Each structure stands twice: as C-alpha cells, then as structure tokens.
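WP5 quarterly update. Target: CRISPR-associated RAMP protein, Cmr4 family. Source organism: Thermotoga petrophila. Length: 324 aa.
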Amino acid sequence: MKPYVKPYYAMTIDPIHVGTGGTRLERVDLSIVRDPATKLPKIPGSSISGPARAYTALETKKYRWEENGREYSCAGRGGEGGEKHCGMVNPACPVCVPYGFSKGTGNSLQGLAQFFDAHILLFPVASMIGPVWVTSPLALEAYEIADFLEDRFYPLGKQVEARENLNFGWIMLEKAKDNLEKIDQIKKKIPEEIPEFIKQRVVLVSDTVFPKIVNSNLEVRTSVSIDPDTGAAEEKALFTYEAIPRGTILKFDVVYNSGEFFKVGDKDLKLQDGRNVDIQWVKEQVEEGLKLFEVLGIGGMNTRGMGRVRVLNLEEVNKDAREN
Ligand SMILES: [Zn+2]
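Structure tokens (predicted):
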C-alpha cells in the first residue's frame, strides 16, 4: 500500500511563536525557528505532531486513562522510556498507532503518520491599499519561474493589479513590466481552499525579496517576566519576542501509511471491529487532533493570546455513515 501525502493549509488566527529555545539574537530576546537556507520562519514538524498528538488524545479520551488498574497517558512522551503510552495495537490505540510509541524492543512502532515542517505560503503585510499577501516561487513550489523574476512585484490577485507601486511595510516595489503573462499561470498554484478575499490580494515577489519582506514584518512584542514566587513583575525583566503574524497561510505535509501489513511483536494491527488499520483511519485520528489547533493552539506563549491556527482543509467525516 503506497503512502498517501496530504498537504494541509492553515491560517494563523493569533500570532504564532515557535521558539528556538531562548537563544538571543540582536533583534529580539526570543527568536523563532528559521530555515537555515532560506532564512524564512518555519514551524518544525515536531511542533505540529506534538500538539496534534495531545489533542487526538483529548478527543479520543486517551489523554489520561485507566484500564485494569493501570494508568496510561497516550499524549506527550509517555514518561521516561514511553512506559505511560498504552502501546495497544489490537485494538489499535487512536493515539499510539498514528503517532507512534516505544516500550522497549519488540514493542514499538514508528507512527503511521509522519509530519513535515510548516512553511509560509502567503504572508500578510500592511500596504497603502490595506493588507496584501505576499508569496514567492519557492513558497508556491513554482520553481519554473524562479529564474526570471526581478526585484519588483507581480500581481496575482485582482485587487492589486492596478497598482504601479506598492509598499510592503517599509519596502517599496514597482510593478513588473515583463513576463506578466507567464506569471498568470502561477495563479493556479494558489490552493482552492484559500479564502477568496485573500486570493484577490496576492502578490508574487522573487525568492530574494520574499525573506526580506517577511523578516521585516514579523510581529514583535514586548512582555514582562513574572516572578513565580511573588506573582509580581520582575524588575528589568522586559523581554521581546517575535512571532508569525495572524492571517499568515502556512502549508505542511503529513504522510499517511497503512498499517495493514504491520506486526508489532507477534500482533497484527486491527481495529475494535476487526477491520484493518487503513490510511483513512490513520488520517481521521490525526485530523481529530488538527481540528483543535483552532481552539487550543500550537507553539509557545499560549497564555499570552498566541498560537491558534485554523486548518483549512480537514475532511468532513460523517461518522454515522461510516459505521453503517
Ligand atoms: Zn495509546
């Protein structure tokens, strides 16, 4: 059974802070993860699979649970060495099977769902005509046009077509004059799931200009550290942190594998009703978790109003229909 790759598109509802772990750069105290090659902010796959696992566990009642006097927690790392994960494969645990577990030799499973990094597909910037969403050949995976783009802007949406000049924050660009008909084809690379008001305001720039626009228009906030003992603000404890702004469209892939020919130890993977663990089932369990990104968020600083993301292309599952 061939693995199935599903691209997900997600819109940030709050700013998202996925930190590098406290390394201090010149610009801010708490910087976000970037791709070393492109310098563009990204969200590592592990920062997507971690909360997805926790939320699938919540939805399927495997967050903390008990059976025959044993306590399990299928969310998180499962304690030291994963001993808190139930690791049940027959019937298949909706958390341990899609996301994996390790309970020692002969009793471990790499998750049947693999998560890849989220990249910025469309980035919102304030301009003189209101918000516009910027993208680049690399972001759209439109490599065929990467070579001839100038340091100008190419309108992809109706609302930006008439402009001869446009500012992206403080960066001002002129409209391109050449190759506009070739660029027209690229509109098809903008996924259907993207809301129409965003599509109307998409602007393409080169792969050199794109990181400059993104990095100079990130959200930078200042906050104050609270002393955990007294609950009071610590003196001289102001810190700044950066975040991907709200309204950003992200793309990430999840690869789904079937568990039909898997054995763990000497056990086949089976569902409660005796059916095989197929790709559709794995995807449904993961999407139960992705659904909650919109409510509970991802990344750090969730208590400061950060982190909510709406995944735009979750499958509508009619569970009653499936069970009949
Ligand atoms: Zn489990």
